[in-house]
Design a protein that fits this description.
The structure is a homodimer.
Chain A: H1 2-21, H2 29-36, H3 40-46, H4 50-67, H5 69-73, H6 80-102, H7 109-117, H8 122-148, H9 157-178, H10 182-187
Helix pairs in contact in A: 1-2, 1-4, 4-8, 6-8, 7-8, 8-9
Chain A binds a DNA duplex through α1 and α3.
DNA sequence: CTTGCACTTAACCGATCGGTCAACTATATT
DNA sequence: AATATAGTTGACCGATCGGTTAAGTGCAAG
């Protein structure tokens, strides 16, 4: 059973850093196959198309985040607003370590792919949107608990959570434009100043 | 003199909507030549490379913005903080009208290109960064004047301006992920809640 | 009337694109 | 031992990629 799984995961492992550091269109199947040490026919045994591969890559990144930084940051044991600080910190250190190794700020693969493909492929767009929707829920939970605990004044947690997610993506975008993770360090903490009030009844 | 200029600007005119609505890698020279009704050799008479074309396209978009919405929004006659409202409004209506015509939220071409190419081409990255830097200055001027006029409490106008720009780009990204300009309408106004305090002396 | 230059045409370059295919190997089942 | 099936190989597909080139065309200056 393991050979099969191994090949498939080697394909994904070869694809992940390439899609992250370049772009969807700029990475070819052939290069991925070379990276994985397999032949093209073998690739298409496991993935019906390039799009299916990138979907699997998206899932892998999402799992990696969900079980790594995000799980740590949104730890229920932490005070709610500190979770948001933690997430910003984690994003900063992650991007910084990538730059140290790779020499480049690679940014957020979900944001990267969203801007590249979402006008051309609604299935990919839906997949990426689902990732963002889940991320937003994490912010919203933290905000709701912060409000319930009296840590912050009441606000529209759904919209504010979405605004915070947008801000995070935007900060990563600007950091990538400057190839400098320190942008995240300077701008990130201001995420907690974002507020969208509850609409009047 | 006009034939030459006409051909060059027809190339740019054919390229602009294509780069905006798809991506840099996904639009080929051949397609642009067909769109402009010329031959490939003619293209390379005016542009040494595809990259030079996209630089010209970036300039065109930048000029269009600078002399259009941005000039209106950052009108010195407007109260400083209202300029920011105006810009958000303008971005919203622009994206909305694009979607009505094109059926898609295309987002910000500067953001799109930044995430696609900035790890692969430092010259393009520098060009895009210069656009962002100019945009940040507009925000900062408005903030400085708002502070001077007592409209808002003092803050770090350089960092807050950058944060606002990041937020705008992030909101457009999320709107594109949802293919829905209304996201801009809902989240946009919260840009004014962003604050980064002055560092202690 | 000629020379020169800006511009255009259309064929062409090697490389790569995403994807297919038939033949082959290895393993597990009967 | 025979069969079925999962996985693999490597050649191949037509299309397109960014870019080049040689041969023209048309106009303007001398």
């Amino acid at each position: 059973m393991n050979i099969t799984i191994d090949t498939r995961s080697r394909i994904i492992a070869a694809a992940k850093p390439r899609f992250h550091s370049r772009s969807y269109a700029n990475v070819g199947i052939q290069e991925i196959c070379e990276g994985a040490g397999i032949q093209k026919g073998s690739f298409y045994h496991f993935f019906p198309s390039k799009r299916d591969l990138v979907m699997a890559v998206i899932d892998e990144f999402a799992d990696e985040w969900a079980h790594g930084f995000v799980a740590e940051a949104f730890d229920p044991a932490l005070p709610p607003m500190e979770r948001i600080d933690y997430l910003i910190d984690a994003a900063y250190f992650w991007q910084k370590s990538i730059k140290q190794v790779h020499g480049r700020m690679l940014g957020c693969i979900f944001g990267n792919l969203t801007l590249e493909v979402s006008t051309q492929d609604d299935i990919l767009r839906a997949k990426l949107l689902a990732i963002f929707t889940r991320a937003k829920s994490r912010f919203q939970e933290a905000l709701d608990q912060a409000i319930a605990g009296g840590d912050i004044p009441p606000l529209d947690s759904a919209l504010t959570a979405e605004a915070m997610l947008a801000y995070l993506e935007g900060v990563i975008l600007l950091a990538k434009a400057q190839n400098d993770p320190e942008v995240l360090y300077r701008l990130g903490p201001a995420i907690k100043t974002l507020r969208i009030e509850l609409a009047q009844a």
